[in-house]
Amino acid sequence: MIYMAKPQIGDDEKKAVMEVLDSGIIAQGPRVKAFEDDFAVMCGTRHAIATTSGTTALHVALLAHGIGAGDEVITSAFTFIASANSILFVGAKPVFVDIDPRTFNLDPAKIEAAITPKTKAILPVHLYGLACDMDPILKIAEKHGLAVIEDACQSHGAEYKGKKVGSFGTGTFSLYPTKNITSAEGGMITTNDPVIDEKCRVIRQHGMRKRYYHDELGYNFRMTDIHAAIGLAQLKKLEKFNAQRQTNAKFLSEHLKGVTVPHVPEGQTHVFHQYTVRVPGGKRDALRTWLNDHGIGSEVYYPVPIHKQSFYVSDLGYGDVSLPETEFATTEVLSLPVHPALSSADLETIVSTVNEFMEKNA
User: Fold this and answer.
1) Of all residues in the chain, what percent carry a pLDDT higher than 70?
2) Cα dist. 142→65, 126, 134, 169, 197 in Å?
3) pTM for the full model?
4) DSSP letters of 97-157?
5) Cα(64)–Cα(270) distance, integer angstroms
6) Are the C-beta atoms of residues 102 and 278 closer than 8 Å to each other?
7) Are 57 and 187 in contact (CB under 8 A)?
8) How far apart are CA 231 and CA 282, in angstroms?
9) At 282, which CATH number?
């Protein structure tokens, strides 16, 4: 079976974990601090704050910006549900804007029309590993006095005009096992703002600035040194992992036929957390079955956009929301294996299997 994802865990990660276990310091400690420091360097930011997951990173970032009940946050409905649920967690309302069909990211041209007096932030999602078109997003945010909270959970190391995602506003990252790097589970917040940095650290640790003195409501969203040790080892390999993903994606894009391969605009880099094609003519589900029958994993990210999820429709009243490009994309997108563990033979098998199906069903 050619799997959709395969975490790259080796001797470096195993040794790092054993060193933590032998040290006796296994909760949030020196490895977390080192991981934060190195992650900030990777992103080109002054600060990084480790958390328990990408979801809690989003949650904490929103709280740190003072977003709460009655506020609105503009984001995408074509993403994992945590992007929007984190907005609900703080009592605010997600306002969904349609996507650019070529990139699957927020269409900047549609953002300004969604702004109301209640809007407090824009939360762009760098989906599948591709940086959003940040210049117009930042221009709109500055014009209207809005915070920018980047969901970079799928885009470690991706760049926009030479600048890393996560460094344009307040960045949030996931370190789940299938991401470009992992800490087994975990998240990271990045920022250049010392005030946001301090707020995130306080919220992450039960509202404490001084041990056992609780200044505000906080949470236990701390990363352990065990997870950080894995993350540190992985971070050293991020550039290599991303380069291999890009090489694999290049091969797929050059050889696949009958499908629309990923679009990468000039000035933006794609680190291919997912390699996502569009399958035209209502053939997507049949192609997925064909691939599975031939031992090739694939996945639909995402089959139901957030504004069409039953909870959002029945409990939150999003039933009348219409996002044509988002809704159409859910009928065509299919992600194929692109991870660094793929061999040349694997890539050739993926291409030949897809092409055979598309030729038979032309």
Assistant:
1) 100
2) 15, 20, 12, 11, 21
3) 0.97
4) EPBPTTT-SB-GGGTGGG--TTEEEEE-B-GGGB---HHHHHHHHHHHT-EEEEE-TT-TT
5) 29
6) no
7) yes
8) 40
9) 3.90.1150.10
The closest alpha carbon to 259, from 276, 240, 235, belongs to: 276
**Separation of alpha carbons 174 and 136, rounded Å:** 25
Element spanning 189, H or E: strand 187-191
Query: Could you tell me which of 205, 234, 178 has the C-alpha nearest to residue 51?
Result: 205
pLDDT of residue 201: 98
Claim to verify: residue 320 and residue 172 sit in the same structural domain:
no
Q: What is the residue whose two structure tokens read 């001084």?
A: 210
* Residue 67 domain flag: yes
- Whether residue 222 is found in the same domain as residue 122: yes
Count the alpha carbons within 13 Å of 130 in the hemisphere toward its beta carbon.
22
Are the C-beta atoms of residues 335 and 278 closer than 8 Å to each other? no
Residue where a domain stops, chosen among 201, 220, 235: 235
158: its two tokens: 């991706």
The parent domain of residue 297 ranges over: 238-360
Claim to verify: residue 116 and residue 137 sit in the same structural domain? yes
pLDDT mean over 171-183: 98
Residues 301-322 as b/e (b if ≥16 CB within 10 A, e otherwise) read bbeebbbbbeebeeeeebeebe
CB 169 within 8 A of CB 193: no
Domain end (from 235, 266, 294): 235
pLDDT score, position 108: 98
- Residue indicated by tokens 């070529």: 102
